[in-house]
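sry for the spam today, last one i promise. struct tokens for design, 334 residues
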């Protein structure tokens, strides 16, 4: 196990370097084609050339290669790598440290993702098991229809509908009523409330996890139905084991292997989905920070956030691989 983990960690290096270089090329070509982002900050009210030159030096945009269209700027990439290895992700175009901005907002995004993951895992596996055990019955048909609708609806559509019908039609009357407790109204809050850091993220977390819930439910259902036909299940039943023990101890563990794989991938999908969800619900997390950075062409923020999220995605994929051995004793890594 130790050697396998070490090999995987070594494999992280080319993936991270490749991601950073791709981002570097994209941002470099954008600057070469579109123009200097420092000058774009001031628009028509440009300051003296000395101030612009000073800002270019501060943000690492004074390299002559940025004036040559098509130049990959390898030296600038090496300098940026050295800066990242020291834990310094630079400053944004408003003078704020990217690391500080990330630390300020990462807690909000992690709380929202925790709500989304808990919702999709618990509810998704539960209804997937119910549908798998009652194949072609009413509950199975209901789960298949509901999950198909959830998968077909994009996140921004689901978020907009949730804001309109749940946040405003239900949440607003609850918050204005005298009989409803305050915490109940905050669960259907449209927007983030620092006084209720968990409850105010309930609705956006549910919306964020709804698509993945549908996928987990269908994966669980399909895998469970397939494993219920296996020889080891028939053998367990022939030994006189109860249905609950056969399903919970023998069948469900093997059925969860593809589900765990999807959950590991879903961590990256949730990070991408949070960009849209946080924008709809005005949640000041990493997604909204990235969205604002893209709008303002704030390159240091984009590079820093994507780098950290790439590392998180790689670590989650490693943890998923290690969980395989816990779910299936036949899987070994040595």
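last one done:
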């Amino acid at each position: 196990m130790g050697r396998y983990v070490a090999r995987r960690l070594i494999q992280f290096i080319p993936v991270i370097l490749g991601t950073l270089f791709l981002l570097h090329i994209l941002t470099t070509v954008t600057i070469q084609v579109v123009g200097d982002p420092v000058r774009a900050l001031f628009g028509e009210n440009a300051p003296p050339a000395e101030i612009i030159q000073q800002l270019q030096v501060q943000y690492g945009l004074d390299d002559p290669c940025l004036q040559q269209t098509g130049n990959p700027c390898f030296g600038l990439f090496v300098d940026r790598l050295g800066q990242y290895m020291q834990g310094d992700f630079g400053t944004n175009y408003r003078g704020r440290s990217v690391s500080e901005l990330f630390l300020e907002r990462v807690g909000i995004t992690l709380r929202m993702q925790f709500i989304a993951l808990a919702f999709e895992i618990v509810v998704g596996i539960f209804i997937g098991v119910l549908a798998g055990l009652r194949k072609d019955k009413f509950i199975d048909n209901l789960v298949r229809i509901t999950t198909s609708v959830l998968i077909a609806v994009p996140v921004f559509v689901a978020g907009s509908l949730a804001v309109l019908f749940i946040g405003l039609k239900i949440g607003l009357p609850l918050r204005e009523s005298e009989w409803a407790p305050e915490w109940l109204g905050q669960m259907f809050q449209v927007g983030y409330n620092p006084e209720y850091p968990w409850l105010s993220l309930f609705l956006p977390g549910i919306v964020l996890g709804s698509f993945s819930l549908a996928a987990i439910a269908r994966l669980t259902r399909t895998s469970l139905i397939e494993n219920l036909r296996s020889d080891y299940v028939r053998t367990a039943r022939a030994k006189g084991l109860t249905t609950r023990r056969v399903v919970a101890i023998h069948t469900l563990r093997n059925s969860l292997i593809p589900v765990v794989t999807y959950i590991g991938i879903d961590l990256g999908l949730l990070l991408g989905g949070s960009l849209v969800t946080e924008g709809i619900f005005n949640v000041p997390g990493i997604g909204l920070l990235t969205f604002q950075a893209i709008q303002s062409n704030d390159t240091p923020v984009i590079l820093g956030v994507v780098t950290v999220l790439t590392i998180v995605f790689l670590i989650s994929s490693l943890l998923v691989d290690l969980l395989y051995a816990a779910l299936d004793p036949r899987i070994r890594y040595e």
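The mean pLDDT is 83. ok im logging off now
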